[in-house]
Give the backbone structure.
Amino acid sequence: MKKILFTIGGLLLVSTIHAQNISDALRYGNTEIQGSARFRALSGAFGALGGDMSAVSINPAGSAIFSVSHASFSLGINNKKNKTAFFGTQNSEKNGNFDLTQGGAAFVFKTNNESSKFKKFILGLAYDKTGDFDNDWFASGNNTNNSIGNYFLQNAQGLRLDQISAFPGESTSDAYSGIGSAYGSQNQQAYLGYDSYILEPNDITDNGNTLYTSNIATGNYNQEYNYASTGYNGKLAFNFATQYTDKFYFGLNLNSHFLNYERSTFLYEENDNGGTIKQVAFQNNLTTTGNGFSFQLGSIMKLSNEVRFGLSYNSPTWYTIEDQTTQSVESLRDDAGTDVLQIVDPRIVNVFPRYRLQTPSSITGSLAYIFGTSGLISFDYGRKNYGNTKFKPTSDTYFSELNNSINDQLTAANIYKIGGEYRIKQLSLRAGYRFEESPYKNKTTVGDLSGYSLGLGYSFGNTKLDLTYDTAQQDRNQSLYNVGLTDAAAINSKISNITLSLGFNL
């Protein structure tokens, strides 16, 4: 039976430390329009089609396809299943949620001057959920090589003992906050390891000591790792579009972005290797909030009555973000034959300075063929270079090194989407397929994503009801920690969505 429990406290510490990494850059930069049911049914291949409020978030010229004012909203059920493999042990976790995925309206103003080449102007407002952070997975296994002790050890090596330890009589909260304010996050991690007796200084009487060993003996380590996150990323687009002659449509979006992300990780490790430390439990919590701005430019051209070509540019998103963290560690040690539980729970919230994140721009080219009133087929090609992601200010040494790592590890990714629709009177049958390349150069940290979609819709005249099912899967290898215990869990994720949309002409 596990002997370790946790309590999270609430004092605040404004810190000068950093906590960002490449995973954060991808989480906020790899956005996906969840969208309306019709949009999802064609796997998002809507860049040359328009006439859908979610299509406006891909190509802002899409609202100019509307002949009359239009509004829609969508509700979605999202289910995610993660299968993990860690040192030969298989586990599976599921989670799901129900949410508003899309809502908006476009107002069409037709020109009364018949000689004008501008046929109409559109003002629109569109909300789309662009990221779902709800995610749970669990990994367990017998690690024959690496202990959580190495996480604390690698953080401590080279640091002075008096910069990772408490003053005589100083409380855990005061020591943790003081060390964080004076020296930063790395020293805080070393303090947690030292105060929990996981770390042993080579010379405990020397405040200038900089060398340490782990009190966790070598051997086999039974490890369990829980990952749980929640939150979302959303975009509110202010849309302006126009139709020029009978062939050209142009549009502009000014986008306001907002994100909220909460994550909790918990590692439990035990061993019977004969060392001082028998058990360790390590809890970390992160809360991230932010807002940002981006713009989009788009056009659609009718090459003929049947063929449409679309082209859109999505600028970088410029985010301002703030992080808060809490953490604690507990250890069970053998003290002369007696088991002693050491609890190091600072009950401190680290409030990090606000920083800026610039996600990469993207470009999308689209081609659609319209079969009169009987159906259509559409294809989108997109490209985004994730290596252009930047944390700012770039003059910051930590951010500069992190940006170099991003450029070394991430690359440009191509996105392919194809969708089709067939109409039988008021009934529409739809299907789609998408393929997204990995943003990593090695193709293994995060693999390629592939998915398909099926949907149907029914028109009641001015009102339309649409229902879609879509699914996608992706493999990745996720390290438990950035240093020390960097062993990765192999995760296969399968995401399924059911979306219901109601659209109506105004």
User: Anything to note?
Assistant: The mean pLDDT is 93. Residues 397-409 form the longest helix (13 residues). DSSP finds six helices and 23 strands in the chain. The first strand starts at residue 11 and ends at 14.
